Amino acid sequence: MNLEAFVLGCGGMMPLPYRHLTSVLLRRDGDLFLFDCGEGTQVSLKRLNLKWKKIDAIFISHTHADHVTGLPGILMLNSQVDRTEPLYIYGPPKIAEYVETSRKVLDMYINYPIIVKEITAPCVVHEGKDFYIRCFPLQHTKTCVGYTLEELDRPGEFNVEKACELGVPVGPLFGRLQRGEEITLSDGKIVRPEDVMGSKRHGRKFSFVTDTLYLPSIAKEVQGSDLLICEGMFADDCADQAKEKKHMTSRQAATIARDSSSKRMAMIHYSPRYSDKELPVLLEQAQEVYPNAELTRDRMHFDLPYEE
């Protein structure tokens, strides 16, 4: 099962000609999840040629303009395809008011259900058959949350040779053992799943953190991420400004990645004060703490394979 992340916009505060505002699309086979929806989101979606008009759920970190101004367009363009499935929108208080007001003022034609759920406490906000998405509190100038998508553990590998040694005939009994069922052979011998199955294998984890003061608690929330998308808005010489505006430096983002043992960390939501030529200073400072730190760019793609 594929799990891929597409950075639709990596900028913060204001869009630039070469940098749209913060948004990330996560594709898990047929499921599409959008994290924040800044100005320019539609442009990147179009340029990537993704089949995105049936997004399953949108997760908003907070209701500052640079994270939600792309949302009305997404809602309207989703009406260009036939869909009966609801679109879920999650976010802190005021997201429901923003969506409803936008629909009324713009007189939107919407041909599908929109279900808005406001977050008031850390919780699991969205669930699927073998995964869940939860939120956790951040500290910004208004209520803000981070998100993680976490897959459930997968069954261990089925040992065909061992099953045959135990006398299990090739066929439907193999499937029952793989589904966790105990079986009885024709001679009365009992074979249990643990006799032929390897240890459970971990699922994958994606984390999205932006617009927050540095908090040591964030590392626990994103622990073991296969990919952590994290705000790294300022360089060290702007640490006081970052604290005043309740943002993070790239070094602080790297500290979270290191302390959470994340496999990869890619920074997002850069201050517009940094041109693309100046962004390497953020990367250099982050890599002093976490050598695997990366910079995101608009329309950058990340593949999250299983760790076998």
Structure commentary:
The protein has 308 residues and is of the alpha/beta class. 25% of the residues lie in helices and 24% in strands. It is built from eleven helices and 16 strands. It has helices at residues 41-48, 65-68, 71-77, 95-105, 160-165, 172-178, 193-196, 217-221, 239-245, 250-259, 280-287, and strands at residues 3-9, 23-28, 31-35, 57-59, 87-91, 114-118, 123-127, 131-137, 145-151, 183-184, 190-191, 205-209, 227-231, 265-268, 293-295, 300-303. α10 (250-259) runs parallel beside α11 (280-287). The longest helix has 11 residues, at 95-105.
Order of helices and strands: EEEHEHHEHEEEEHHEEHEHEHHEHEE
Query: What number is the mean pLDDT?
Result: 92
Whole-number count of domains: 2
Number of helices: 11
Write the CATH homologous superfamily of the largest domain: Ribonuclease Z/Hydroxyacylglutathione hydrolase-like
CATH T-level topology of the largest domain: Metallo-beta-lactamase, Chain A
Strand-residue proportion? 15-25%
User: Which consecutive residue ranges, at least 5 long each, have pLDDT under 50?
Assistant: none
What is the CATH architecture descriptor of the largest domain? 4-Layer Sandwich
Termini separation: 13 Å
Q: Structural class per helix/strand content?
A: alpha/beta
* Strand runs, count: 16
Keywords: Endonuclease, Hydrolase, Metal-binding, Nuclease, tRNA processing, Zinc
Binding site for Zn(2+) 1: 62, 64, 140, 211
GO molecular function, one term: 3'-tRNA processing endoribonuclease activity
Domain Metallo-beta-lactamase: 20-200
